[in-house]
UniProtKB/TrEMBL annotation:
It catalyses: (7R,8S)-7,8-diammoniononanoate + CO2 + ATP = (4R,5S)-dethiobiotin + ADP + phosphate + 3 H(+). It comes from Polynucleobacter wuianus. The gene is bioD. Catalyzes a mechanistically unusual reaction, the ATP-dependent insertion of CO2 between the N7 and N8 nitrogen atoms of 7,8-diaminopelargonic acid (DAPA, also called 7,8-diammoniononanoate) to form a ureido ring. GO terms for cellular component: cytosol. This is ATP-dependent dethiobiotin synthetase BioD.
Length: 239
């Protein structure tokens, strides 16, 4: 039913660098001459562009990496305004997020390219509604997973719980990435070593802190230089 070519970028939590990694992987796939597409099942949080458009920072980062301008094509079926748990934001507007709608939007987009990079939202099991979550979506589309571990205290447990959730669903894990966050954790190298010894999937690299000149502005997309910086530090698994 699906081409099954691409990656699902999962995170140990929200705000761990999934967007940075998604953008970086898109650049690497484009370098190989692939026609790449991007997708996000739901976004929560918008900003107003200078032209007055309501945009989302993750979708605009994906668009920048893909070489697309703002707006078309739509890379996400649900754009919610409040930066909070999507099912709750939707509920507060009288909307129910539906897995079927997400799958339909995904299937239209993924047919348009050679491969697709799907960024999850929050951690792996973020709810869509009271019955369905993003793990169900990942299970249906069956893309190999890349786990982004946000390097902060507690990430070992979060990484291992995420790995268990992938295993339970028989999902292939193409690899994992250690992403240093805006404040560098204590014993960073030792934490990465512990993760390497415990995660049963290829280690694809570690992204250092972004240099100050290219760090992400609050509530705005990453710049292309930040995505290129991250891309230099990670390896692309074969498709
Ligand atoms: N390597 C890094 N160096 C410095 N700051 C970073 C790095 N990676 C991520 N950050 C910061 O961490 C924050 C979260 O990153 P990002 O938006 O990529 O996370 P996410 O996992 O995509 O979050 P969400 O669940 O909202 O999609 C951003 O403000 C970003 O600037
Ligand atoms: C709005 C935020 N940046 C993310 N896109 C969504 C985070 C959902 C978290 C849900 C939860 O696990 O509590
Ligand atoms: Mg993101």
């Amino acid at each position: 039913m699906y081409k099954n070519t691409g990656f699902f970028i999962a995170g140990t939590d929200t705000e761990v660098g999934k967007t940075l990694v998604s953008g970086a992987l898109i650049l690497k796939l484009r370098e190989q001459g692939k026609k790449v597409l991007g997708f996000k099942p739901v976004v929560a949080g918008t900003y107003q562009s200078d032209e007055g458009q309501l945009l989302n920072e993750d979708l605009e980062t994906l668009r920048l990496a893909l070489g697309l301008t703002a707006g078309q094509p739509s890379l996400c079926p649900y754009v919610l305004d409040m930066p909070a748990a999507p099912h709750l934001v939707a509920e507060s507007k009288g909307i129910r997020l539906e897995l079927n709608t997400v799958i339909q939007a995904y299937s239209e987009i993924q047919q348009q390219g050679d491969c697709i990079v799907v960024e999850g939202a929050g951690g792996f099991l973020t709810p869509l509604n009271n019955q369905e979550n993003l793990g169900d979506f990942a299970n249906q589309i069956q893309l190999p997973i890349i786990l982004v571990v946000g390097m902060k205290l507690g990430c070992i447990n979060h990484a291992l719980l995420s790995m268990e959730a992938f295993k339970t669903r028989n999902l292939k894990v193409a690899g994992w990435i250690a992403n240093t966050l805006s404040s560098e954790m204590q014993l960073l190298a030792e934490n990465i070593e512990t993760l390497r010894s415990k995660i049963d999937a290829p280690f694809l690299g570690s992204i250092p802190q972004l240099p100050p000149a290219i760090k992400k502005p609050d509530n705005r997309p990453y710049c292309i230089e930040a995505l290129a910086f991250a891309a230099q530090h990670i390896r692309l698994p074969s498709l």
